[in-house]
C-alpha cells in the first residue's frame, strides 16, 4: 500500500510537470472513466484506467511519437504502444477484434480492425492522430468495450493516468493533417464582439468525416470576418448584426472550409473562422 501511495503521488507530480503540454484525450467522442488505477485485479493492481466508450470509438495518439503493435498477449488482446516524444510511453489495450457490431472475435490485430486503416507497425504519428479502435479483445472479451490506458513516464513503471486524463484536450473532430473540413456548431452565445464570437458549444458535426458529438459544454472563440454572413432566424433573408446577439442566445455556426491541424481539431482560440452565423429567435 505504501508503494502504491508513493506511485500515485509520483504520478500526480509527473502530470503536473506535463501540465504545460496536456495530452490529447485518447478516445474521441463520448467516454467516461473513474480513477481505478491500483485497484485489485486477478493479475495484481490495475496498472491503468479503463475508459468506457462505444465499440469502435476512435483511439487517438495522446502525443506525437512512434507506435508499436503488440498482438501476442492473451490478456491484453490487440494492443499498441505509443512511445511519446516527451519520453512517456502510453499503452492502449483491448483494441477491437470484431468484424461486426457483435462480439464475434473474428477479426485479427491488424490495421482496419484493431488499428487505424493504413497504419503500419513502427510508424510515426502526430498528436491526435487516429491509431486504433476501442474494443473488448483479450481478457475483456464480452465485457463492455473500453480502452485500458496506461501511462509510463520515461518508459518506466506505470503511474496513475487520472491527472493526465483530467487535464487532457478533447478534440472537436479527428482528421489527418491537411484534410479539408468544415464544422456545423450548435451552442449559445457567451460574448459577441465586432469580429469574434465566444460560444458555449453543445454539439459539433464535422464534414466530410461525418463525425458527430453532442451533449458538449465546450467554450469556443471564433473569428467572424467581415465577409461572414450573420442572420437572424426571425428574418433569415436579412443580414443581422453580430453585436445584436444576446448572451445565452441559441446560435448555429458553419465554419469556413479549412484544412485540419491539431489547433483546429482542438478548437484553439481563433483557430476556426465562421462563414455563417445564424442567431436563433427565442
Features:
282 residues; nine-stranded mixed beta sheet; six-stranded antiparallel beta sheet; elongated; mainly beta
How are the elements arranged and paired?
Blueprint: H1 2-18, E1 49-52, E2 58-60, E3 65-73, E4 77-84, E5 89-95, E6 124-125, E7 130-133, E8 146-152, H2 162-167, E9 180-192, E10 196-207, E11 211-213, E12 218-223, E13 229-232, E14 235-239, E15 250-255, E16 258-259, H3 262-266, E17 274-279
Parallel strand pairs: 13-17
Antiparallel strand pairs: 1-8, 2-7, 3-4, 3-6, 4-5, 5-8, 9-10, 9-15, 9-16, 10-11, 10-12, 13-14, 15-17
Strand runs, count: 17
Structural class: mainly beta
Averaged pLDDT = 91
Strand content: 35-45%
The CA-CA distance between the termini, in Å, is 57 Å
Let me know the largest β-sheet. Answer: 9 strands, mixed
Assembly context of the chains: single chain
Q: Give the C-alpha Rg.
A: 21 Å
Q: Indicate the percent of residues in helices.
A: under 10%
